[in-house]
Design brief:
Layout (H helix, E strand, L loop, with lengths): L15 H6 L10 E2 L10 H13 L9 H21 L7 E4 L2 H12 L8 E5 L8 H4 L7 E5 L10 H7 L4 E7 L11 H10 L3 E5 L11 H4 L3 E5 L9 E5 L1 H6 L24 H17 L6 H27 L4 E3 L13 E6 L4 H8 L4 E2 L1 E3 L4 H6 L8 E5 L6 H20 L1
Parallel strand pairs: 1-11, 3-4, 3-5, 5-6, 6-7
Antiparallel strand pairs: 2-8, 7-8, 9-10, 10-13, 12-13
Helix pairs in contact: 2-10, 3-10, 10-11, 11-14, 12-14
Length: about 425
């Protein structure tokens, strides 16, 4: 669901000194990190908790002795905090795993027996491959796939196109909450209402959304919702949320004696990673503190309201410059409206190879990236594959206006140098 932002007068100002002080990688100021959609910097408190777990409670859970009981309590607390962070109604709905890609494969495998030959699944050509490829493996079961396509002329999606694809045989629709190329926030609640009206379920990839807005899985209307914590200031770890009744229906992926009602453990083969789960509690505590420290969902929402306002300013600084340049095409919207986009901005420069321009910024210690970012179907659909794809600048709330100005100056120099040659 795309929550409308509060008026600026009601948004807590973002304390950038506090924010940047929470990330050790930012302390030197030597590097500007604008590749955050590929992986954000890690909170100090996250790393400290991972280390503390491994050094003090690195035992198997579930035993009677005291250290095992402490480890068990920590993992349970982690699951409960993550549930609060994403708006889940109960901790049992939180499935933890190594990455979004793997959790999507787990979900597709666990759901396979529910799908019969002729059943239909709708995927898109504007999503990250993590929410496409795992589902396509079900073709061998006779599942029929339909593609919800982006409209190249407007670089946008239309729910009418999705509605036209729906049929009585549609069982599942898979879509992204936010594009990791376009930065656009899709209307997930509206999509969910349409999908449910046709008796199907909705699986949402929120990897590009979760670093920027407060996740509310219930309000989103989704049935399954997945994202990775290493994009949200934590370790290489991920969460799959599913409505409890749906998780009960899934086949187990663990040992045969883990019954269908053993949720979520039946979907966490070999156990989840305990130390990373405990580390992720630091993400929740950070956003709680950023939002006033009240320990409830309201604090998390206040924090992300402040994040969205600051990120809108970052977006406008860069987009404003890009709009004024001849020969630069922003892929998607050029508006910085926080209600409709996050500060992930992709563009092409006429007459320039994207790789050459990006590499020209390396000596400036500015980290950006070029390519298709595992959204290859989208890049190909839009005809952007030539010249090493697009340039992507992906900002988050710890970035500053001064860093954006550094990027603009370096990029302007690289373009002019290239033109001169």
């Amino acid at each position: 669901m795309t929550a409308m932002p509060q008026p600026d007068s009601e948004v807590r100002p973002l304390d950038l000194d506090f924010v940047r002080g929470q990330f050790p990688a930012l302390e030197s100021g030597r590097w500007t990190y604008f590749d955050n959609a590929g992986g954000s910097q890690v909170l100090r408190r996250v790393a400290e908790r991972v280390a503390d777990y491994m050094l003090t409670t690195s035992v198997q859970t579930g035993a009677s002795y005291a250290v095992s009981q402490q480890a068990t309590a920590r993992v349970a607390e982690a699951r409960a905090k993550i549930a609060r962070f994403i708006g889940a109604t109960r901790p049992e709905e939180v499935v933890l795993g190594p990455s979004t890609t793997i959790l999507m494969r787990f979900l597709a495998t666990a759901m396979a027996s529910q799908l019969q030959p002729g059943d239909e699944v709708i995927v898109t050509d504007f999503d990250h491959e993590s929410n496409i490829g795992p589902w396509l493996m079900l073709k061998e079961r006779g599942v029929v796939f339909k593609i919800w396509s982006i409209r190249p002329e407007s670089v946008s999606i239309d729910l009418a196109d999705l509605k036209a694809l729906m049929s009585p045989r549609t069982r599942l629709v898979c879509v992204t909450h936010c594009s990791n190329i376009l930065g656009v926030i899709n209307p997930i609640a509206e999509i969910a209402a349409l999908v449910h009206a046709h008796g199907a379920r909705l699986c949402v990839d929120a990897v590009a959304y979760a670093p920027h807005r407060a996740v509310d899985v219930v309000a989103s209307g989704a049935d399954y919702y997945v994202f990775s914590f290493y994009k949200v200031y934590g370790p290489h770890f991920a969460v799959l949320w599913g409505r409890y009744e749906h998780l009960l229906e899934l086949d187990g992926l663990y040992h045969y004696f883990y019954g269908r009602d053993k949720v979520p453990m039946k979907l966490e083969p070999g156990n989840t990673n305990y130390e990373l789960a405990w580390g992720c509690t630091g993400i929740v505590d950070y956003f709680d503190e950023l939002g006033g420290g009240t320990g409830d969902r309201a604090a998390i929402e206040r924090a992300f309201d402040a994040v969205a306002a600051h990120e809108e300013a970052l977006s406008e600084r860069l987009l404003g410059w890009l709009r004024g340049q001849n020969g630069i095409r922003v892929i998607g919207s050029t508006r910085a409206d926080r209600a409709t986009r996050v500060p992930t901005i992709a563009f092409k420069v006429d007459g320039h190879d994207s790789a050459e321009l990006v590499r020209a910024l390396d000596p400036h210690r500015i980290g950006i990236r070029f390519g298709d970012f595992h959204s290859r179907r989208l890049i190909e659909r839009l005809g952007l594959a030539d010249g090493n794809g697009v340039i992507r600048v992906s900002m988050v709330h710890y970035n500053t206006i001064g860093e954006v100005d550094r990027l603009i100056a370096a990029l302007d120099e690289a373009i002019k140098t290239g033109d001169a040659h």
